[in-house]
Structures are given as C-alpha cells and as structure tokens.
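Sequence in, structure out.
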Amino acid sequence: MKGRMKHTEMQVRSCRILLCLFASLLGPTGCTPREDPRARERGLACLRVLMAEDLLSHAHVEVPSLENIAILGDGAEPYLGLRLFPGQKKCNGGIRAEVSVDVPHREGDTLRYEWRFRVPADFHSDAPKNRWWVIGQWHDQPDTSRGETWKGFPSRSPTVLIGIGEHDGRTAIGIEYGPTQAEKRGPLFIERGTWHPIALVIRWSQKADGRAEVFFDDMTRPVFTLDGPNMHNGFQHYLKLGMYRHPDIATDNWIHLAGLKVAFVTNPVGRQAPTTLPE
C-alpha cells in the first residue's frame, strides 16, 4: 500500500485480508458491484466494522479500487479506513471513497445519524487553497414511486453536507445546508489523530419546517441548528460518508470511520422504523 500513513503490522495484515475478501466486489467500472451474492457478502465485511447488522441491507461501498479502502485497528476494535490518493480513478464521476446508507423514510420524518470519525496525525489539508472537500453528505435520488430512474435524473448538490478544510492554521469542519447550500456554519475545530463523535438530527422537509441539529464532541446539546427546506424532492435522501473532493487536490489522505447509527426520532404513527434508537 502506497499511503503515507504508517499502519501497525496488525493494520497492514487486516488490509491484506480485506483485499482477498473484497477482490470480487468491484465491477468493471470499479464502483458497480457485480450481481453476485458472494461478492455482496465480501463487501459486507467492510461495512460490518462501521455499522450494526440492521443497517447492512441499506448500505453499499463506493470506491474505485482496492487501494481506497481498508479494515484497520488492533483487532479488538476494528474500524473502516477510506483513502484518496493522486492518480486514482474516478468513481461515479468524481474523486471519492465513500460508504452510502439509504435508510427508507418519508418527508416529515426525523432521523438521527451518528458516527465517529478521525483524520490521521499526518493528514494533509488543501491549505491555502481550501478547495471543496466533503466528508459527509445527504443526497436526493429518483422517486421510484413515480417511476423515476437514474437515467436522466438531474445532478444536484447535497442538501446537507460536512466539509473539511483549514482555518487559521487548524483543521476544521463546517456545515452547509439547504437545496442551494445557502446556510453555512463553522468552523468546528478537530484534532488530527483524535476520534470525534458527531451526530445530525434531521427533520426532512421540502418546506420551511425542515431542520438539522448538529451535535459535536459534547453530544448533550447541539452546536448548530439550521432551519428551512432540506430536500430536493419528496423521496428519501441518503447519506454518504468518507471523502469526496475537488479533482485537482493531489494529496494522499485517509479518514477513519466507526460506530455509525441511524435511527428514527419521530415517524408517522403506524409505520415501523427500520432501525432502533441509539442506546
């Protein structure tokens, strides 16, 4: 592996095991899984270190090559590593290494998305240019109830995103919100080499009653609250975690992810939530 991060012997061994497990997952484009139950099971090996079993049926990996993903850790508490590096292939039209989670919900539902992330101590930012670099985003998709498909579906910016960059010489994240990303909050400073918990509680709506509350580090109270529409259409919007960045950024970077939970806070009476509330 060509990454600049120095992994322990156990981490490297875990990565080699993953390569064997994951080799047949990627289709001809590097992003499309082959329709093979065995390939799906091998892909689930990656996802299981990030999320609970009840989310696996809603989750997929979006990476262009085996060099973009690794199961890391000391064995007791493994976590998922996603990597971007110079010269890598595009995946679904962009420079990305992400996991997508598409939990079914409807407009008016409120969901809590919670996870932990870490950037390594040797993480290289894009300062001073600070071009766009996304580590979390929620996207619209075709409304299958109306017969829509991805063919001809318009490409639109995420309605909620978490970006990473450098502010006053320190690594930080920021939030952009709304169909035009008009609402912006930040910076929230992070420590390289340190795990940070984060959660967003989102009431999904195309109207003014939409809302997102952002929790960070001290998870007892929101650091930001953003109000207004947060859907491009009335169909469920899905989460993507990892990294997606400007194509001209040419550094080798990892991000580490763990502990992903997605849960309904409220949903219409009579509809059973597909996931349970966090403990």
